[in-house]
Amino acid sequence: MRGRTLRAHHVVVVIVCALQHCAGWMSPTCRRCGGLRACGVRHAVWMTLLLWLLVISVRISFLSYSLFDWWLVFNFNSIQLRKQGETMSGRPEKGLYGNEEGQASAVPQGHSRRRARSDLEGNTDQPAATPIRVEEAQLRWTMCSIVRDILLDGETDISKMKLNDFLREHFGSRAAVEEEQNMEMWDFLESPDAFIKDQQLLEEISNLKDYQLLTDRRKLADGGVHYLEHWIEFKDKATVTPLARKKLNDALTQIQKEVARLEAEERAKRRAEEDVRQDTEEKTTKLEGFYESVYGAKWGHVLGFYDDKIWEDRMEVHEGKPSMSWTYKVEGITFEKDDGVEQFSPPRLRLMVLASEKGWPYSWRENKPIVDCYVNCEVERVWQIVERDLKDLSVTCSVYGSTLKQRLLVGTPGIGKSMNAGSYLLYQLLHYDAEKIQVVVHCFGEDVAYVFDKTTKTVTKYVGIEASESVVLSLSQRGMKGYIIYDVPTNEAQLPISFAPSTGWGTIVLASPKVRDIFEFVRQRVPHRIIMNRPDEMDVKAMCAWMTRDWTPQEQEKYWRMVSHQMLFLGPILRYIFDANDFSKRYDELVRVLRSIKSRDDAERLTHGGTKEWCTENPFYKLMCVKRKRGDFGTEDFKTDLISGHLADRSFPFVVKVFPLNEILGF
């Protein structure tokens, strides 16, 4: 202290540091010190200093300082803690928590190592680490985990370290190269012999653990192994070091154990729920009048045309089936809507509606029947593809065989796959040729199945997967041909094990990309995917026109303004935009998801959504939507994007905190 004068704020700083230290925190390292038992003498020194200051602090009036002075002292100390934390890696290092004895690395830990790590991590894009217990620091890997993160867990990332820093750290200054050859270690891997001629030194370098892991990362990246799921099918596992193999295999083992545990818990839960359900209701229930309601659903439609007077599209609501539907053209091995046919013929068909008095199976489970099934060009497109499957089969096979395509319908959660696409497929299959399709089974997970028998014109409800499998097998053995619509509920973690008979039956699974193992499901069963896009703004306006067809023009306009406003925030997600309460709850939920962006990987899932596979463990799928794209060999595939421009704007401040702006903009 200058002039050996003891000031009040000096005493406060020392007391604050002492109290923090004795509370278990060591300010210089921004981590837990381990308490009195772990720190020993250091605690005694701090406590002695504190007591001594309290005794000799005569004539020092702490109360004479303003609240601002006290705030300044505490804030200064917090800043020092944060500055220390900013030099820490985003991953826990060995010896970082608790007592450091027995945790020393095999690599020398000299001053050059600390300086190199500071230089390397000072520019990192990862957020500062938060001191937590070792048990809480254990990572829970997923199939979407980045291989780099798994290999670096508990290790040092030397990819951006300069070659000379690396050599001085491990071999001293004698091994340094010329400055023009002083490159980053990642680039050094391309041709080590070109920069270091000493073969003995090269051999010593190659034996270092950090270098081996970096080499493994390079090999795996060059081999297309970027995520843990890629490691499973990687053929050249023997080319990487045993340490890397162990890390990756351990991560897979952890996932397998966790999946097995979750599935066992889910099975136990379902058995318990089914036992309770069996005590209260019969497994089989005849639903009187429901077959007639669905089969005889009434048609309606909405036409749209541009009104020059109001400079926007107007909607006209009509009863009955439209005289013309949409036209589709073949693209690759699938269909796309032919917009050219409609270009010069307004008014254009915007929406078809099927009204079932008793509702549709999707709503029967909740005993709240939804009467109207909305059919836009995307829903009609799904039926056109399924119908072509049936026609192709009847042309190519004289006997109904096993060549009927198994389909997987994928789309953004909440756009109407279950209610609209599922219900419309059911209606069309009930009206399809009874000689080719006699039964339609509409399943909702493993809980409920509704069996529509076209020969007896009845609907039977079956509860439980065993009952559903049994009835389908029985119908098949009787020579009946059918089609299964399997709707995967939003709370179901995985896709079904198909119980469809091997011949004579078709299946379409309705699922969201967030369902676990969807890509493995595609790979093993090889179903043909159908990607369903979201409805567009005019589709939603046509739905509003139908809903409010009996309202006054003023009420219709007010309702449309509310829906269109909510659509700006959430996009055309039908589940949430037609009701103000549903909208508010969903929007608040998405804002909480945005605020949970904490790492570079989180940000990449939003800014590069189109290049990353959708994972169920990733909470950011709620912010994303599915868009159809053309896959290999003319098949259908999908990419992802944020559901609305508003959420893209809201996400930007959270993303730039963990992601460099020049990388976001592609510089």
Strand and helix layout:
Elements: H1 8-22, E1 25-26, E2 31-32, H2 35-39, H3 41-56, H4 67-86, H5 111-122, H6 134-137, H7 147-152, H8 163-171, H9 185-188, H10 199-206, H11 209-222, H12 228-232, H13 242-280, E3 284-286, H14 290-295, E4 298-307, E5 312-319, E6 328-331, E7 334-337, H15 339-342, E8 348-355, H16 361-364, E9 372-375, H17 377-396, E10 406-411, H18 417-430, E11 439-444, E12 448-453, E13 458-463, H19 465-477, E14 482-487, E15 505-511, H20 518-525, E16 528-532, H21 537-547, H22 553-570, H23 574-577, H24 580-595, H25 600-607, E17 624-630, E18 636-642, H26 645-656, H27 661-664
Helix pairs in contact: 1-3, 1-4, 5-8, 17-18, 21-22, 22-24, 25-26
- Give the assembly state of these chains: single chain
Structural class: alpha+beta
The gyration radius over C-alpha positions equals 33 Å
Portion in beta strands? 15-25%
Mean pLDDT: 74
Describe the global form. Answer: globular
* Strand tally: 18
Uncertain residue ranges = 1-139
User: Could you describe the largest sheet, including whether it forms a barrel?
Assistant: 8 strands, mixed
Distance separating the two termini: 49 Å
Give the total of domains.
Answer: 4
Helical fraction: 40-55%
Q: If helices are DSSP runs of H or I spanning 4 or more residues, what is the number of helices?
A: 27
Strand order of the biggest β-sheet = 3-13-12-11-14-15-10-16
Keywords: Coiled coil, Membrane, Signal, Transmembrane, Transmembrane helix
Signal peptide: 1-24
Organism: Trypanosoma cruzi
Domain DUF7578: 158-220
